[in-house]
Amino acid sequence: MGFSRISVPVPTIYAAAKALYETLNQLYKDGTNKNLQDRIFPFQEFNKLIGFPEIRDLEKKFLPENK
Fold first, then answer.
1. For the whole model, what pTM was predicted?
2. Helices marked H in 1-67 — which ranges?
3. Looking at beta carbons, which pairs linking 9-16 to residues 24 or more positions away fall under 8 Å?
């Protein structure tokens, strides 16, 4: 059995759903995220991944300063 076409977004949605499911179950079971550290992004690394430093640069450039 083979496939002649694959929809790339579908496997990523399934992977994300499984990660959410497993993470939420672990949080429920433990009541803490201490056992999830090997499966989650550190705060600064996540900020970099989503482009937060660039957003902050744009804010500095275009938003008025708070005084």
1. 0.65
2. 9-30, 43-49, 52-62
3. none
